[in-house]
Amino acid sequence: MLGDFCKSQNSEFKADRWQAYIKGECGPNGGLLWWTESLGRIELQMTLEDAKSVSHSGPCDEDVSALRKVPYIAEQLNALKPATVRATLEEYGAWDADELADHDTNLDRIIWIAGADIQQDEQLEQERAQ
User: Which residues, 6 or more positions from 95, have their beta carbon under 8 angstroms from its beta carbon?
Assistant: First the structure.
């Protein structure tokens, strides 16, 4: 059951997911790390290895494309509404309305942002632990 909490995007499981994370059943010890955009409209999970694969110096486009084909990532992305993804990306101010019109490209952007945030959070946690 805890695996369901770790993977679910259903808001009723947020507290359970957090408890599972604290217990090490999600997160670095359980494999999946949880990312939520600032207003909680989009939640994604991926492994640290997945996050690192899309967050590195140089072009990440091919790596993002490859990660989007991973079944558990694709399932999460398929559940996202285009308007929600677009509204989330608008807050970054990095893309104009024309650029945000393509949902497929927006999903690439969300994966890239989530991967970068997850990797950065894990690096900060490691630094704090030292």
Answer: 89, 109
For the cut 70, the answer to whether the pLDDT of residue 32 exceeds it is: yes
Residue 61, sorted as left (phi over 0), alpha (psi -120 to 50) or beta, turns out to be alpha
Strands (E), 38-92: 43-47
- Residues 51 and 115 sit within 8 Å (Cβ to Cβ): yes
- Residues 27 and 33: beta-carbon distance below 8 Å: yes
> What are the Cα distances from residue 56, in Å, to 21, 79, 80, 120, 124?
25, 26, 25, 11, 16
Strands 32-36 vs 43-47: parallel, antiparallel or unpaired: antiparallel
CA distances from 7 to 23, 25, 26, 31, 107 (A): 15, 11, 9, 11, 18
pTM: 0.75
* 86-108: pLDDT as tens digits: 999 999 888 999 999 999 999 99
Cα-only R_g, the chain? 15
